[in-house]
Amino acid sequence: MFIIIAAAACAVLSCPSVAITKAKLAGVLVVIDPGHGGLDDGASGVVNGNRVVEDEHVYDTALRVRDMIVRDGGKVVLTIVDPRQSRPINNPAGKWLTDGNDEQINGRGCKPLKGGSSCLRSRLDVAKRAIKDHRGKVVWISIHFDVVGNDKVTGVRIITPEGRTPQVAEDIRYMFAKAKRCRAHGPIAFSGDKRYGLRRLYVLGSRNPIRDRILIELGNFKAPEDLWRIRDPKVRDGYAACIVNGLIKWSARS
Ligand SMILES: [Zn+2]
Hints:
By secondary structure, this protein is of the alpha/beta class. The protein has one domain (28-251): Aminopeptidase (3-Layer(aba) Sandwich). The chain has 8 helices and 10 strands. The chain has helices spanning 2-13, 54-71, 120-131, 167-178, 180-183, 197-203, 224-231, 233-251, and strands at 29-34, 44-47, 50-53, 75-78, 80-81, 104-105, 138-144, 156-159, 188-191, 213-217. The strands form 3 sheets. A 6-stranded mixed sheet has the order 4-1-7-10-8-9, with helices on both faces. The longest helix has 19 residues, at 233-251. The two termini are 38 Å apart.
């Protein structure tokens, strides 16, 4: 009865049309694989005599990506979780995130979490469980900050499965290359480089159950310029926004 009355009133008063906007990432499942964790620190650098590690910074960035995806209506599963850190940390300028070994595989498997190939399969198992009942689009994103190279190599690299470039990789690359906020994070390159060894074989290889899978190297711990970037929470937020804007562009495709 109310609807009929409201409709009749609107016909008389000419109410403004109410736009029903769909969440930008509705129906999208993103499996985020933070590059390292637990006993595996990943790469490290030295700032004022202190060791600064990769895993804490890529995990923090992963949480920022997660929160932005969820805000836009998407679903996220992390392959690695830290029960002691559920939110991103805005460390003070000039400081960094301190190393902890609490990260573990999300769900069962591989305790403690170690580097090398031993825990990579457990990460893929997280993805297998996650996609089981999902009916929409799915993408796998590994996040790292230890691009292969010397201290002159800086900027973002997007690594794709050998011989195939998923559209989602193109759309995220577009954001890093074109969007003003993203361009500030250094040069962008695109590569299916074979030198990524273990990661390509396991994380980007055919054992991964998700067809659209990419690995993003947000920078290089060996390069002083990048080591400065990753320590800044605003930059980590920027990285996350660039990734998520790329996902939104990809999601809008039919
Ligand atoms: Zn790494």
